[in-house]
Amino acid sequence: MGVGMDEDGKAAGSDSPHLDEGEQSQAAQHSGLRPLVIHEIIREEGEDELERSNGALTLSGFAAGLSMGFSFLTEALIRADLPASTWRHLIASFGYSVGFIIAVLGRQQLFTESTLTAILPLLTRRNGETALAVGRLWAIVLAMNLVGTWAFAALLLVHGVFSDAVVGSLGVIAREAIHDAFAATFIRAMFAGWLIALMVWILPSARSARLLTVLLITYVVAIAKLSHIVAGSAEAAYAVLIGTASFGQYLMGFLVPTLLGNIVGGVALVALLNHGTVAEEIQDGIDERGGRKAE
Asked: Is the separation of the CB atoms in 172 and 89 below 8 Å?
């Protein structure tokens, strides 16, 4: 039973004998969404994503990659103006949220969101056609997200655009994105994928607090130094471009463990679990509609 719902699944207060019709309507509007409603809102978003053309996915994925570069840049800008201290990371990490705010609220195609949105249609239908559609979406969006981050990182190399302090901060953040420990990076990425997919699950209920929701959850990703395949790619790509890391280190010290961890966190820990909580309701609805047709 969801928050704000009675045992029959109705909005709390919507049938109260102590409220008039207008007050009952107000109560209904302020009640939380049922898990099934949230599931179906996100599933419908996923259905729309799966139907988008290759060209639309390419452009939207590239735009998201560019936008996510602003997480890297904004964090470096804030860091450059703060004194060296134990709390500098806590303040500078607010900059990490900027790219997510642009990409998520701007409805640009971000790979880690699709670990939930595109998977729910697959879990609902469970057929090869949907699986192929998910694979097409993931391949295009991930590739273009990464291309966008590399393009953004290359722009940061233009001499004279930013102060020496900002350039120094960019270098420090970039070096931290690539790690030698594959397993540790995988676990950090799993937590990041888990949080981002949970953010997507929460957003339909957030309403006017969507901005705050994105800000707070991505801030946690930043302060915990978790690994995100798109935001981290801008940082890791910059490390390669300035020569502090090799492309091989980019692949095995960042890309592969982060990608795997983000997928596990988003699909296994959010999509599968949250779909499982409403799967019986979905099947009951399908059976009921099928019964009506048979009649």
From this structure: no
